[in-house]
Write a structure and sequence with these properties.
about 210 residues, alpha+beta, 2 domains, 4-stranded mixed sheet, Glutathione_S-Trfase_N
Length: about 210
């Protein structure tokens, strides 16, 4: 299998972690979606990462779809519950974590614009999304029903990747205040080899 992405994207990191957790062998193709010469559109017509080429040569894109595709493989651990309703609950939390990443990325991209072209209103709107999303994740992590349970699942990975991105880009430096369950989750996840192997490089382009 071939994973196309870059080292700083939290969505790419999510898929890398999943594949490492499952012990899957894959080639990582480091491609930025932001350059004119990017090869990413060859794999995803939307020009976004990650994209995955499976062992049959079929291409998959969007991290949630790739995660679902990887769940169809026989390799353990399974990261979604077998029961359909429970699986949807976990996937909703994955979507929430990805949405936090979406908001953080908008802020990061906005900060790259000349100061006179930046929109403080838009950045504040995105920060509110992040705070509400983190509050919702904290409640779920505290309940330990669909998140932060005994067995690692897709929501755990997605939430930890989202917070890892907040840390990496310094978007919400006080995210841990009054969120002890999330802190516990993140500390637990960051100790895993899959997360240690996917820490983004210190000097990296925006993604």
């Amino acid at each position: 299998m071939k994973l196309i992405g870059n080292y700083t994207s939290p969505y790419v990191r999510k898929i890398s972690v999943i594949m490492l957790e499952k012990g899957l062998t894959f080639e990582f193709v480091n491609e930025s979606p932001w350059t004119e010469e990017s090869q990413v559109p060859q794999y995803n017509p939307l020009g976004k990462v990650p994209a995955l080429v499976d062992d049959h040569g079929e291409c998959w894109y969007n991290s949630s779809i790739i995660a679902a595709r990887l769940e169809t493989l026989p390799q353990a651990p399974k990261l979604l519950p077998e029961e359909a309703f429970s699986a949807v609950k976990v996937r909703q939390l994955e979507t929430l974590a990805d949405g936090i990443c979406d908001a953080a990325l908008i802020i990061v991209r906005e900060q790259l614009r000349p100061i006179e072209q930046q929109s403080p209103e838009e950045m504040l709107r995105q920060r509110h999304k992040i705070q509400r999303g983190l509050d919702a994740l904290e409640r779920e992590a505290a309940s330990q029903t669909w998140l932060n349970g005994e067995q690692i699942n897709l929501a755990d990975i997605a939430a930890a990747c989202a917070i890892g991105y907040l840390n990496f880009r310094h978007v919400a430096p006080s995210w841990c205040v009054n969120r002890p369950a999330l802190v516990k989750l993140v500390e637990k996840m960051f100790q895993r080899e899959s997360f240690a192997r996917t820490v983004p490089p210190a000097a990296a382009h925006i993604a």
